[in-house]
Amino acid sequence: MIKFSADIQHITMSRSSMDVEKDQTPPEQEMLQVEKIQTNLSPDHIEYLLNRHGTLELNPVPSAHHADPYNWPAWKKNINLLIVSFHAFMTTFTAASIIPAFGLLTADLGKTVQETSYLVSFAVLMLGIGPLVWGPFSNHYGRRPSWLLSTSLSLVCNIGCAESKSYAVMMICRILVAFSISPGGALGSGVVSECFFSHERGQKMGIWVLLITIGPATGPLIMGFVAQHLGWQWIYWILAILNGCQFLAYFFFSPETIWVEPGDLEAHASCSFVDTRLKFGRVSTTPFQKREFYESLLLLRHASIALPAFSYTIVFAFASILMTVEIPQIFGAKFGFDAQQLGLQFIGIIVGSLPGEFIGGTISDLLQNRQRKKINANSVPEYRLWGSYFGFSMVILGFLVFTIQLEHAVTWNITPLIGLAFAAFGNQIITTILITYAVDCHPE
Fold first, then answer.
1. How far apart are CA 92 and CA 442, in angstroms?
2. Per-residue pLDDT tens digits for 262-316
3. How far is CA 269 from each of CA 67, 205, 282, 313, rounded to the nearest angstrom?
4. At what angle do helices 303-316 and 388-408 cross, to 10 degrees?
5. What is the DSSP letter of 337?
6. Global pTM value
7. How far from 316 is each of 25, 322, 362, 405, CA to CA, in Å?
8. Helices (H), strands (E): how many in the chain?
9. Which residues neighbour 23 within 8 Å (Cβ) at sequence distance 6 or greater?
């Protein structure tokens, strides 16, 4: 929970005060906004914020401590964001990486293609279940221990997959890998909220969402070459190596982002390497409760969570997961592609996702900031949603192009992949806007 939520409530204007201030000139409105902040903060706090950020128009209002993630230098925030975003990428990348190797796995494990596809399906299912455990753990012990534990367990379990000699053993290891790596797809939005101000979140959230979205396509694209030339075992060995690199990146470059304001005696505590990298402990003094493991599901009682979640689930399932899983079965049977050729079919999804991230994050922040300047107050998050309609139309168009062109194709041509690109483009816009909207509505 953000420490200065009370200050934010004071800063945010009521509807009645907005109506009065609409008749004032922008300079007068800015003066009123600054005066509201000044009445809630000490002179030292105000001086610190002005020196650190150059403005008092910050949402949320950070503390006056340099260790507060909101007060980190931009380079430090962005490095941490890239590490966490790569973790998010690894969740879906890991789940989808074996897709082009279905043929090889089928031969070695003695299973059908459909049975082999369950190695992906159950992994995707566990990516959704795992955060119910990792969320409460990270809220009590911090993000940093969660990241380190997640990457180390993933490394071990991927080695188990590489050494698997039977379908059952591989299935168990795949499920454990998915559980271990799953925090990246759930806790990343919290990290963005804990480090970046509201007016920055659309763009920063877009980076995290982009890497989640392109993971299902990049995995098969890269691992298709690996499977064709090195064998399916090396898919898992490469994933284990990447997990090891993640662990080192978190250890050296990613401090804790859950900010616990120090007491008077700790206000000038050391921020040395030992203190920030080698000391671990609880960030919450409240004991674990059973409710915490399903509490996130209770957020569905809020329309601002339920509707975006439902929309995101449907769009992501069809525009990302479905297409990713079906490409090997459809293109393999229709055109007789090998693992390497199947991997190349995922380029369209990546090409569509990249501009989608830029446009989605830019539109989201543009709509929010335009309204904030118009009323000179913190605008409601719903203004972000206008940009999602364009994304929905692109997904629908992409599906139509993909299915119609694939049905009529006698030999391979690029037109179905163009449909994939349109669908991925819209999916990226929708995902960025809806997740940012939900986080703005419920930063807790």
1. 25
2. 754 344 445 555 555 666 666 777 777 888 888 878 888 888 889 888 998 899 8
3. 10, 31, 17, 44
4. 20
5. -
6. 0.77
7. 44, 8, 20, 21
8. 21, 0
9. none
